[in-house]
Amino acid sequence: MSSITISQKIINPNSRKKVVWDVLVLVLTIFATVYIPFAIVSGISGSKLFQVLNLLISIIFFLDILVEFRTGFYEQREFITGKNRIIKNYLKHRFALDLIAILPIASISTLFLSYENRHFAVYFTLLRLVKLFRVKKTISRIRNNKHINPSFIRMGLLSFWILISAHLISCAWMAVWDDPALLNPINAAHPYLRAFYWTMTTLTTIGYGDITPNTSLETLFVIIVELIGAGMYGFIIGNIANIIANIDVAKSQYQEKMEKVTTFLRYKNIPLDLKTKIIDYYDYLWESRRGYNEASILEDLPKPLQTSVALFLNQSIIQKVPIFQGASEEFIKEIILNLKPVVFTPGDYIVVKGEIGYEMYFISKGLVDVVSEDDSLVYATLGTGSFFGEIALLLSVPRNASIKAREYCDCYSLDKETFERVLIRFPRFAKRIREMAEKRQEETAQKQSKRKEVAEKLRNKAEEENKTEDDNTTEEEDKEKETE
Ligand code: CMP
User: Residue 269 region, left (φ>0) first, then alpha (ψ -120 to 50), else beta?
Assistant: First the structure.
């Protein structure tokens, strides 16, 4: 989503300036929510400070309405900038609440209240708090801009609502409570603090019973708060457990998988060294890719998005493999979309001499040895950026050597079908890979024949030695016979 202001007059809701403004309104709303009820129940609502702050809050909230009339909105991903549609949308959704928050209902109500009841008028200032309903929207805009973990936002919002509810209940309790401590100077804590303490002990269902209701109104109030507390307690515990489990979904899924795997290994009595190898493999997957399986995540995306993500994820392998350097975009796309990540553990035979080949591999990280069938001769060692397994695909012959992983190897496999298609479509790549394959075949053949030569020489030498030994023994036997 673009954060640019599309038209000069219309504000983009995701632009930096709009988010800053929303944060300012949010801070002011929170301040109003904390300050106004407190000021009313503490009897300081008649002060000059309260009047000034109240006026300031009204002005900012009024300016916010003007800003909202100029803020475009998104409808099914389309940014709407038409003035009439913006006004209609705002009037339909949020205008009523924003209007209630700025109207001087408190002042107007004094006209209708009798003189003795006029002090109740200040309670209408509490209507400014309806602005609190905007909190969620503002937070989600901040989240869009900052990409914060949703679990942290949920945790923050939950704590926020708990504290705000506790504050409002404390203020309401102060309003209905005939605090006996006011007559008893020994209890020096501020009445608000005592009210907040009572709220917390009641909401959390601790209820020490040191502050108890006396009048009917107080008793009724306590019953309601107790009911809210019981419901809230379960809600909070459930939510926190859920949020904590979701903070790191990848980790909890990985732990769950590990538990299943280890239980299975134990149940099937898998030998210790194999067990260690399997657990080691999962550890490696976790360290190298947080346990995610790229392919399964890509599967859910539409094709064009798959291409973009695959291009991004696999760009490092393209940079690492020398034969891909300077290749056309079309070629890279074709290859990248068909590469599949695979991991091999130390000692694994990735390719076995004599078998039929169905894929070739590119090494993204790690070392492999190209070895003879019996593992006794190492033809070459290949590392990051190298490839192997191309000969069997090119010539449709059995594998001409075995490939053994020396350490953990992150590879990408390319299937035979794609490989053949790429060879036909991109002759330059075909030529380079053929040259490389020929060179490798020659090298391997040379090493094999050299080895054969050495083996033959050794065999001949051994035979000669045996022969001379045999000759010597017959000569000695003849001599012995003669002396006899
Ligand atoms: P392939 O025959 O399909 O399977 C074994 C692979 O080992 C082979 O393809 C080559 O990719 C690789 N290989 C064989 N000989 C050499 C060599 N001398 N140097 C590097 N790689 C080799």
Answer: left
Dist CA 195 CA 189 (whole Å) = 10
The CA distance from 64 to 29, in Å, is 12
Q: For residue 448, how far is its CA from the centre of ligand 1 (angstroms)?
A: 13
How far does residue 349's CA lie from ligand 1's centre (Å)? 13
Separation between Cα atoms, residue 268 and residue 434, nearest integer Å: 47
Q: Going residue by residue through the chain (484 aa), what tens digit of pLDDT does each one get?
A: 444 444 457 898 888 899 899 999 999 999 999 999 999 988 888 889 998 999 999 999 999 999 999 999 888 778 888 999 999 999 998 899 999 999 888 778 777 777 777 777 888 889 989 998 888 888 877 776 666 777 788 888 889 999 999 999 999 999 998 877 766 655 556 889 999 999 999 988 888 888 889 999 999 999 999 999 999 888 888 888 888 877 777 888 888 888 999 999 999 999 988 998 898 888 888 888 777 777 777 788 888 888 888 888 877 888 888 888 878 888 888 888 888 889 999 999 999 999 999 999 999 999 999 999 888 889 999 999 999 999 999 998 999 999 999 999 999 999 999 999 988 998 888 898 999 999 999 999 999 898 888 888 888 888 888 877 777 766 777 777 676 6
Type and span of the H or E element at 411 = strand 409-415
3-state helix, strand, coil in the chain (%, to 5): 70, 10, 25
Pairing mode, if any, of strands 378-382 and 368-371? antiparallel
Q: Which of 360, 386, 393, 400 to mutate to test the pocket of ligand 1 (most atoms within 8 A of CB)?
A: 400
**Residue 403, Cβ density class (10 Å: 0-12 exposed, 13-18 middle, ≥19 buried):** buried
Beta strands, E only, 124-214:
none
Q: How many CB atoms lie within 10 A of CB 319?
A: 11
Distance 293 CA to ligand 1 centre (A): 28
Residue ranges around ligand 1 (CB below 6 Å): 351, 357, 370, 379-380, 388-392, 399-401, 403, 440, 443-444
- pTM for this prediction: 0.61
Specify which residues 71 forms β-bridges with.
11
Phi and psi angles of residue 381, each rounded to the nearest 5 degrees, phi first: -120, 130
